């Protein structure tokens, strides 16, 4: 399976209340260099948005975020999600994600949660909520005793802080929504979103531009 952490330095975290904008939005993100797109299950339109992107934007690797139940795992994969992201995890949810056949990032915010996942053979995780849970200093502290764990930090990260996260040895990518501002989506300003995506795609490990 592909590693979600290696698809792109930044994964757009998208919340859509209108599935009709999903395809042009995804095309703008892909044109800007961001092929991995996380559509969160925070609205009733999410599954339709995932399905539309999967069907009509083959260049995109669309995934589902805010996955919190085994039933959602099944529904997301059926809709075409190619990866899954959760804000946390339980044994039941982890089992469902393992059995889904697609890559997944279970959410953690403490060292104990990281150790528990490592014990279960999971090495790639979402660190959430990143800023509130300790930010770069916390992740830097985890790198020493738990170097085998790799993270996608998400939550409160913007263009000013993303490079600091990407400079860490245990961070593969970050998740953020700054390249899909709500006003630009509402205005269907795809050119602006493409430009913001291009700036985010220029970030790389080490916190520098490619």
Structure notes:
38% of the residues lie in helices and 17% in strands. It has 210 residues and is α/β, with parallel strands linked by helices. The chain is globular and about 45 Å long. Mean pLDDT is 95; it is low at 206-210.
The largest beta-sheet arranges its strands as 3-2-1-9
Strand segment count: 11
Q: Determine Rg (CA atoms, Å).
A: 16 Å
- Can you say what the CATH homologous superfamily is? Aldolase class I
Order of helices and strands: EHEHEHEHEEHEHEHEHHEE
The gross shape turns out to be globular
β content, as a range?
15-25%
What's the helical proportion of residues?
25-40%
User: Sheet bearing the most strands, described?
Assistant: 4 strands, parallel
The pLDDT mean sits at 95
* CATH architecture designation: Alpha-Beta Barrel
Distance between the termini: 25 Å
Low-confidence stretches: 206-210
Number of helices: 9
Which secondary-structure class do the elements indicate? alpha/beta
Number of self-contained structural domains: 1
What is the fold-level CATH name, i.e. the topology?
Answer: TIM Barrel
CATH class reads Alpha Beta
């Amino acid at each position: 399976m592909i590693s979600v952490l290696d698809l792109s330095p930044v994964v757009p975290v998208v919340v859509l209340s209108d599935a009709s904008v999903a395809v042009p939005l995804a095309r703008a993100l892909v044109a800007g260099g961001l092929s991995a797109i996380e559509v969160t299950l925070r609205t009733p339109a999410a599954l339709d948005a995932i399905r539309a992107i999967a069907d009509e934007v083959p260049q995109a690797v669309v995934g589902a975020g805010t996955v919190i139940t085994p039933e959602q795992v099944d529904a997301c994969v059926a809709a075409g999600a190619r990866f899954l992201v959760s804000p946390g995890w339980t044994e039941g949810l982890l089992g469902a994600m393992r059995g889904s056949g697609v890559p997944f990032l279970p959410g953690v915010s403490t060292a104990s949660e990281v150790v528990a996942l490592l014990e279960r053979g999971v090495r790639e995780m979402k660190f959430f909520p990143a800023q509130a849970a300790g930010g770069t200093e916390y992740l830097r502290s985890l790198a020493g005793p738990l170097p085998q764990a790799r993270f996608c930090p998400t939550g409160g990260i913007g263009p000013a802080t993303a490079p600091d996260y990407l400079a860490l040895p245990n961070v593969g990518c970050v998740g953020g929504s700054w390249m899909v501002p709500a006003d630009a989506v509402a205005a269907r300003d795809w050119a602006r979103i493409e430009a913001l995506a291009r700036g985010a795609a220029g970030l790389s490990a080490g916190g520098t531009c490619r």
